[in-house]
Amino acid sequence: MTRPVAIVGAGPTGLMLACELGLQGIGAVVLERSPEQGRHSYAMGFHARTAELLDQRGLLDAFLPETPTWRGNHFALFPLDMDQLDGPQPFTVAAPQRRVEQVLDERARELGVPIRRGHEVVGLTQDTDSVRLRVRSGSEEYDLTASYVVACDGGRSTVSELAGISSGGTPPTVSTLVADVTGFDTERDLVSMGLHPRGQFAAIMTEPGVLRIMATEFGADPASDAPVTLESVIDCVRRVTGAEIKVSEPRALYRIDDATRLAESYRSGRVFVAGDAAHAHYPMGGQAMDTGIQDAVNLGWKLAAQVQGWAPPELLDTYESERRPAGQRVCDNTRAQLALMVPPERVGPLREVLTGLLELPDVHRHLLGLVTAVGTRYGRDGDHPLVGTRLVDGVVARAEGDTPLAHLTRSGRGLYLDLSGGTADTETAARWAHRVETHAAEPVGDAAADKILGVLVRPDGHIAHVSTAEDAPGVLETALARWFGQADHR
Ligand SMILES: Cc1cc2nc3c(=O)[nH]c(=O)nc-3n(C[C@H](O)[C@H](O)[C@H](O)COP(=O)(O)OP(=O)(O)OC[C@H]3O[C@@H](n4cnc5c(N)ncnc54)[C@H](O)[C@@H]3O)c2cc1C
């Protein structure tokens, strides 16, 4: 039996993709090497764009209101004011990775996607029709054939290597010692983040009862493989800050570095890469889990369309043309942030300049858009400026009545929002009613000022087309066909 899609890896990326494919009714399967769900949380939370995407699928409610949210953010440790972020979720949700995986795992299973834990992919061959995976489970091995495979198998992706997808990048220049501890005294202002002449120090609660200590000593050997012990972390904090921290009961001790890597291609034949398998960078500002989840939401509906046989030509290619630049942006912005911190004796003037620039609202919003990914735009040159931007409540449009816009996207279908009060070409949109729902909505901001008649929205919540009174005949039809295939001729 040939599976339509095999997802390798049940981290946040693979599980989000499983949810997206399950929502579209695709018979996917997830293969995960570890016999059990991981207990350790690397990522400590997710940013505004991921919150919006989860809300679009009805998954944000699993986190809010119980999970704490942060109204603060930073770029190279310069505070960013989240009040300048438009949209319904101007905050970071402090949900540890383990919790995110739990929520996505449950949802994927509810949607009928099996997650085979303890199944490791050890081989891969592909031809023009399918991909054959060699899978090891305990002492057994078996073959699994799928029409498409998505490598969501993390930073040391075996699957991309087997598929011949190479990566380019930069070697490490700094390394950070990390200790997650449960023995600490919160009363003693431990929770902090700061730049010091000799390095960088952060102490952050990753989840109730767990404090993460991160210490980076500038000039230390970035390629060191000396074992990380609690003592070595405490010593490093002393050298960097001069302070003596009292922590004990380490849960996890490890080293991270700023080696940066981006896949040269996000696709090789029938194999795609997503998440850390496609991009790896220093976890500055915690953007990695977000980028993987956003890859999954971008790819899910397109791959589903391909499997269901209605994908317009080149739809699947837009995964790489849209998400590889997004991966590049994250790699670049994390490197830029480090370059604004190291070496400390040279970055002072640069930081002074940025302090001044951040007073300009456009600069501030641009950086917020980068680190939260709300600024991600998938438009092409010559498109209307709103094309490719995200559609969320209060940005471009607001749903009529009490229903938030996010609720309209929960089915995973496209949307045509009639913002005209009755003059938009809803008849044309109705010819795609099998894939695109039409709803009335109210224009907001520029959309109201520019008298936009309607917006066509993709299943991932990005605007595909903007209808205006100046449109030439047939442009809406062309846009619908470009993103949603043939009209229903019944
Ligand atoms: C110290 C540290 C702090 C971080 N902090 C943050 C943060 O604050 N915010 C943030 O967004 N990100 C952070 N990250 C990064 C974040 O953890 C990753 O981006 C995220 O886990 C990537 O998700 P993924 O699903 O792409 O890959 P992974 O989570 O790595 O999942 C890959 C899965 O594939 C499985 N697998 C691997 N090989 C195979 C195989 N051959 N067959 C079957 N299964 C396989 C693995 O067991 C694993 O479960 C941090 C990382 C580190 C190291």
Automatic annotation (TrEMBL):
Xref: Pfam families: FAD_binding_3 (PF01494), Rng_hyd_C (PF21274)
Signal peptide: none
Entry cofactors: FAD
Domain of life: Bacteria
MF-aspect GO terms: monooxygenase activity
Domain FAD-binding: 4-334
Keywords: FAD, Flavoprotein, Monooxygenase, Oxidoreductase
Protein name in UniProt: FAD-dependent monooxygenase
Native source organism of the sequence: Nocardiopsis exhalans
